[in-house]
Design brief:
Blueprint: E1 2-7, E2 19-20, E3 25-34, E4 39-45, E5 51-53, E6 57-61, E7 70-78, E8 89-95, E9 103-108, E10 111-117, E11 123-125, E12 132-135, E13 138-141, E14 145-150, E15 153-156, E16 160-163, E17 174-179, E18 184-187, E19 193-195
Parallel strand pairs: 2-10, 11-19
Antiparallel strand pairs: 1-3, 3-7, 4-5, 4-8, 6-7, 8-9, 10-13, 12-16, 14-15, 14-17, 17-18
Length: 196
């Protein structure tokens, strides 16, 4: 038993992903060489553990030899891929006359999507002479590259803005950007300044 995915969007997913956000595609559960054929069900489990049965179309591959063995599958068509299904688990359940209980096969879905950054506060206070850190929190797949800007000039290339000792020269307007292969997301706060 195995799972196949197909992405029918304009952008192909990168390594380790099945789908690209806002595209559409299919998930198929397939068994091979069964006699008689198997009965299959498919569901997915969200990141909170809630399982939902999926509507599926049956796909049969008729054997070409004298021995009757079936390759049987079911396919779920996803009309629009949303980022929230990233990390969902597809559960394929197979029943067959030779099995005492259903067999399960689990597969985790990977969806690529552009960065979304949580808003920064309007002001952040740093104490003079003390270390200061502020993390740019974002969500993206693949993981983004982060860049901090101070007064519209590149300042640091890291997710966390770090000042070893906050000084008067550190006062300014800071913004964070996150980019992956889909887009760059700039978060420009309303006059974010580090105050004395």
């Amino acid at each position: 038993m195995y799972v196949e995915t197909s992405n029918d969007g304009a952008v192909a997913p990168g390594a380790g992903a099945d789908f690209v956000v806002n595209s559409y595609g299919n998930i198929s559960c397939v068994t091979t060489d069964s006699n008689p054929e198997t009965h299959m069900q498919m569901s997915w489990v969200d990141t909170d553990g809630k399982e939902t049965a999926l509507e599926v179309d049956k796909v049969d591959v008729t054997p070409g030899s004298m021995v009757k063995r079936w390759n049987t599958g079911v396919t779920h068509h996803i009309r629009k891929i949303f980022r929230y299904i990233h990390g969902y688990t597809v559960v394929c359940r197979v029943t067959h006359v030779t099995l005492q209980e259903p067999k399960e096969f689990n597969y985790t879905i990977g969806v690529e999507y552009p960065p979304i950054i949580q808003p920064l506060p309007n002001t952040a206070k740093a104490n003079r002479g003390k270390p200061f850190e502020y993390t740019c929190n974002g969500d993206a797949n693949p993981l983004p590259n982060y860049i901090w800007y101070k007064n519209n000039v590149t300042f640091q290339s890291d997710q966390t803005l770090t000042l070893d000792k906050a000084e008067e020269r550190d006062i300014g307007i800071y913004m964070c950007s996150a980019d992956n292969r889909f887009e760059i997301f700039f978060l420009k706060p309303h006059g974010n300044r580090f105050n004395r």
